[in-house]
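Our consortium's second objective concerns turning raw sequence data into structural hypotheses that experimental partners can test. To show how far this objective has progressed, the report includes one record in full. It was chosen at random from the queue rather than selected for favorable results. The single chain below, 986 residues long, was entered without modification.
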Amino acid sequence: MSRQDANAAFALTSFLYGANAPFIDDMYARYETDPASVDPEWQEFFKSLKDTPDAVKKNAEGPSWEKAHWPQSPRDDLTSALDGNWAEVEKAIGNKLQAKAQAKGAAPASSGDVLQATRDSVRALMLIRAYRMRGHFHAKLDPLGLEPPRDHEELDPRSYGFTDADLDRKIFLDHVLGLEYASLREIVAICERTYCQTLGVEFMHISNGAQKAWIQERIEGPDKEISFTREGRRAILMKLVEAEGFEKFCDLKFTGTKRFGLDGGESLIPALEQIIKRGGNLGVKDIVLGMPHRGRLNVLTQVMGKPHRALFHEFKGGSANPDEVEGSGDVKYHLGASSDREFDNNKIHLSLTANPSHLEIVDPVVLGKVRAKQDQNGDPPDQRISVLPLLLHGDAAFAGQGVVPECFGLSDLKGYRTGGSIHFIVNNQIGFTTYPRYSRSSPYPSDVAKMIDAPIFHVNGDDPEAVVFAAKVAIEYRQKFHKPVVIDMFCYRRHGHNEGDEPGFTQPLMYKKIATQPTTLEIYSKRLIADGVMTEGEVDKAKADWRARLDAELEAGAGYKPNKADWLDGKWAGFKVAGLDEDPRRGITGVALEQLKDIGRKITKVPDGFRVHRTVQRFLDARAKAIDNGEGIDWATGEALAFCTLLEEGHRVRLSGQDCERGTFSQRHSVLFDQEDESRYTPFNHLGEKQGHYEVINSLLSEEAVLGFEYGYSLAEPNSLTLWEAQFGDFANGAQVMFDQFISSGERKWLRMSGLVCLLPHGYEGQGPEHSSARLERFLQMCAEDNMQVANCTTPANYFHILRRQLKREIRKPLILMTPKSLLRHKRAVSRLDELATDTSFHRVLYDDAQVLKDQVIKLVEDKKIRRVVLCSGKVYYDLYEEREKRGIDDIYLLRVEQLYPVPLKTLVQELSRFSGAEVVWCQEEPRNMGSWHFIEPYLEWVLNQINATHKRPRYAGRAAAAATATGLMSKHLAQLKALLDEALG
């Protein structure tokens, strides 16, 4: 065969490629039933194949081995098109057209007419689907028009076989677009108006059919134009007057002062108003906002209702808090606020969460606060709609910061659901000095939200009505489906990154365009004047009235004095600031023995018929025996009794982290699993009817977002014991921003207390540099001004008391707790039950066991004969104790510092004064440049001088300074351990 003949043969059979096989099989089966139902050309083709009817039918049904209900049958005009297979749609529409023709009593339509009408319908549906899928790429989103328009070939009817002659011919749509029949001209007009104007919607990636159908119904159709009442349009304009007027006023009165203005994105303000108003109508009672610095001052004053005079007072260098309130304070564009707003008789509480300049890091904090408030409201788990998380973002940060997808990963997990968050991206199309093409690899900054099927509304910020409409649909979607939704508002930044920055250095073309761009208010004012909604005089008067009000507020700001700090309001009423009373720190933490034993019986019993793992059953039996006998209380049992006593007192206990239900080291087992059906049983939730709720959550594999979530939870709920546990302590550095910017400094910067507990497994056991150190030194370095607590406990009793102490005082402080690994099952790391009983409490410094325990190998000499006191913290105490025992040393005293910060100076003075003639050594298992040494040394020197000790300075015993936290070789680990023990005890 010549090449020409081969090409001709290929051209005649090119339709027989693999992707068309299902379509051809289906048509072949129809031909066997009714040859007239297919084109004459196909009739000839199928006739030539000479297959039996049964074989054709069987082939059309598909292979016998395919999954019974997969792939799913198409249920609308779109699902079948996801893989390009329109055969089912064509068949269904053809049948409907035949039925319609017969129902009218007319002569039956010819098979050719039906086939042509069917193909017109299918091609029209393909065009509509293209608009739904790709229309947003062709929408008029950029107010500046910087990018050239895209090619419209995919939305051109000619690409689907239509010609100009088809424009006005009626096509059967079967109520797609809300129409039974429509001309091609009408179809294109509706699709262009819906998907390609100043609003572009991405929703075809959503896998849930109901959610996708709801959006289609909400925006598609001949009567679904964006429209507002006369009063609604005037209200939008008034918020623009306020937003723009505020920025211009600040620019005039405080020229060059950083404020990170909203200039160019003013449509945000009426959009937020719409979310609040419509949300209130749909059941929202409380909105927690988180946002970056851009536009924050505008939101604070125009949305949150912060008095302008208060802000202008801060612009002039005044404090946001009364003079008597201590704290470092923060710049005005980091501060939070709270207020109550009322729309249509619906009162809504608003709170804007304070945050640092670390972009997006406030997101999980907001989500945690929302979850706590929803729990307080008693929202059903599947309908958490009373409290709304509303997060504002910049485009570069939303695409660039990893905490954003982490938060999306939390959104539908049982322990972290918040009923959906609304994300509003103020997309000014630049990140400081970096264009989007250099700061992300996706078309939009919002693309990361597709990972959870969130709908995305792209909108032009210079069309305030489109922006407000997007906001309205977004809050309606969230309230109906309890899922996240994203608004991506294209706008621009009229000034540089801040008001003192020159953007023309790096974006000359963009800023030439911005220089001639009319403001959103100018554009919208002209639109309303042209539509007869307002007169030019009314617009000018609105601007003048607003300017007069700001002038009056500026004058009032000169004498403004904040009269109240809001940090001990609401749920925090009744709490105190540490240091105002003599000693509110100890707390009453002991519990009656009978209550402890009763709890022990309840938490070691499993329901009849529950098939617990035999190893876990031995664990429960051992726990029951220890509690009943009052001896050998191990670490996990001490924790369990702390949790359960708080629960019986009505407190909520919330613990989250990676694998914390069982515990990384199989020590906790707070959730039991039936070995036959994997049903779950949580003993701690079966203590009694009036108990608090115990919530233990295996988190997703993230530190930053999960820790931020728990911190946020603790901000809103001071009466819950809220804990985050790292799988290993060194993993905490994946959340270092949370420790630096919030946990350690939030109270001093923003007057926000937290009682969060962080459990960080720590200890040197030869596991290598990745699983040995929780970087204790970093937390100690952050300690100052009584900002938090850092402890490294050595007994289950002290662990029990320090956990209970978190809720048994009138103050709240974060607790960073180094927790054990090998000590979980160490024979010496046990307590008696009576050490947890009434009139017992937490010991910041612990005695030498040889001094107080019976039947010890070593009996210490009297205090004046002690030649050395070795101070230590954590697991190394037991290494020292056992080594001292082996060596038969009786004149070295081991003193444990259980709480490293606040440093227990009075107690140390009291204890060390017994040994004023002894040498003092600080021993640690961490390298010299890590651990507690550099932090504790000056404090110990002060103590030694206070007691007039013979040796005025402490000596170091421990590993040499190192770059890595620990060695990975067991032999080297043991050699280092021997060396530090020799140094401490030799």
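The partners drew two points from this record. The two ends are 98 Å apart (CA to CA). Residues 70-83 have pLDDT under 50 and may be disordered. Both points have been shared with the crystallography group to help prioritize constructs.
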